[in-house]
Specification:
By secondary structure, the chain is mainly beta. It folds into 2 domains: 1-35; 47-343, Neuraminidase (6 Propeller), CATH 2.120.10. Helix content is 9%, strand content 35%. It is built from 2 helices and 27 strands. It has a 5-stranded antiparallel beta sheet with strand order 26-1-2-3-27, with no helix packed on it. Strands 4-5-6-7 form a 4-stranded antiparallel beta sheet, with no helix packed on it. A hairpin with a 7-residue loop joins β2 and β3. The longest helix is centred in the first third of the chain and has 28 residues, at 8-35. Mean pLDDT is 80; it is low at 1-41, 149-153, 336-340 and 342-362.
Length: 362
């Protein structure tokens, strides 16, 4: 039969069939949209996460896909604390590959690794200035107060600033107590960090402080009876996320909070009971580049995994499921193109470190 011919009845059947397929297809499409995996729908194309998995630095998409091992040491020497440069072309990180903890920088694909610090102490916890010209970090190169104990003996963490090439390293905190985990504000005017400087020597009541990049104008932002640590600026500079034990002062229950940039309006975002005998460990928060989401590390399912939630704490979604410990992510703009590093399969190194306690970086 020639195309376009047929009876009126047959034509009516075809027209009704087409209408049914159009309506049914629309309904089916709508159902597929509603049932799409929430993480991939929400986070696709929203920058890149750089994280520590066991003993290496990895990058991944914010939905947990596209995991790539950038350092791939395959040893027990930890590569840790990655931090994206503002333009997404480099990652600063801490490594023990040459003995103690030092600060290194590499291209976003894991190539062109350069060592920036050479002190006898431990250097780690990096954050870039918004113009990419400087890096702030904490260091144990200076003597501390007797009784100040870290994981490896008496230490004194201080906040240092250096040029992005490692030159001109300057102590800006100059305090004999623990000053650690700095983060540089998006407008470049303020560095926040955690310290126990208002505790007795060896005390663990860590609070969050702010200062100018030259170390002046120090002010205390939190005053809780439990530990507040790990401050992270929101991209618009109006809020700060952090981890706290204010609800469980002497226990292991860390939760994620946000507050205004001046320390007001603290808001609890996570409320997780955690594992029996261990409590909740929701910590190491980092904001998406658009400020709509926060990624964090959590012990909820037997080991450390990465979760992503809306900035108000809703829709908490697990995005990793690898063996070992996923932790300490930084959410940046990411590399302009896919990295040539080793695609992740079985983690190359042995299981990594245990979570830090009492605000002391491990």
């Amino acid at each position: 039969m020639a195309r376009g011919s047929g009876t009126a009845e047959e034509g009516g059947v075809r027209r009704r069939g087409r209408r049914w397929m159009a309506l049914g297809g629309a309904a089916l499409l709508a159902s597929l949209v509603v049932q799409a995996p929430p993480a991939r729908a929400l986070f696709a194309g929203a920058g890149k996460l750089a994280c520590m998995r066991n003993n290496d630095v990895y990058t991944m998409n914010p939905d947990g896909s596209g995991v790539v091992n950038l350092t791939d040491n395959g040893t027990a020497i930890a590569d840790n604390d990655p931090s994206w440069s503002p333009n997404g072309k480099q990652i600063a990180f801490e490594s023990r590959r040459d003995g103690d903890s030092e600060v290194y920088v590499m291209d976003a694909d894991g190539t062109n690794v350069k060592r920036l610090t050479f002190s006898k102490g431990e250097d780690r916890g990096t954050s870039w200035s918004p113009d990419g010209s400087k890096i702030v970090f904490h260091s144990t190169r200076d003597p501390g107060v007797e009784g100040q104990m870290g994981h490896h003996g008496p230490v004194n963490f201080e906040i240092y600033v250096m040029n992005a090439d490692g030159s001109d390293q300057t102590n800006i905190s100059n305090n004999p107590f623990f000053d650690a985990q700095p983060d540089w504000s998006p407008d470049g005017s303020t560095i926040v960090w955690n310290s126990n400087r208002d505790s007795l020597p060896g005390g663990v009541n860590f609070e969050i402080y702010a200062m100018n990049p030259d170390g002046s104008n120090v002010r205390r932002l939190t005053t809780s009876v439990g530990e507040d640590s790990g401050p992270q600026w929101s991209p618009n500079g109006r809020e700060i996320s952090f981890q706290s034990r204010r609800v469980d002062r002497n226990g292991p229950n860390y939760e994620i909070y946000t507050m205004s940039a001046d320390g007001s309006d603290p808001t609890r975002l996570t409320n997780n009971g955690g594992l029996p005998g261990f409590g909740s460990f929701d910590a190491f928060s980092t904001w998406s580049p658009d400020g709509r989401h926060i990624a964090f590390t959590a012990f909820r399912d037997g080991d450390g995994e990465i979760y992503v939630m809306n900035a108000d704490g809703s829709d908490q979604t697990r995005i990793t499921s690898a063996p070992g410990f996923d932790q300490r992510c930084d959410w940046g703009r990411g590399a302009p193109s896919g990295p040539p590093g080793r695609p992740a399969g079985v983690p190359s190194g042995p299981p990594g470190q245990t979570p830090p306690v009492d605000g002391i970086p491990n």
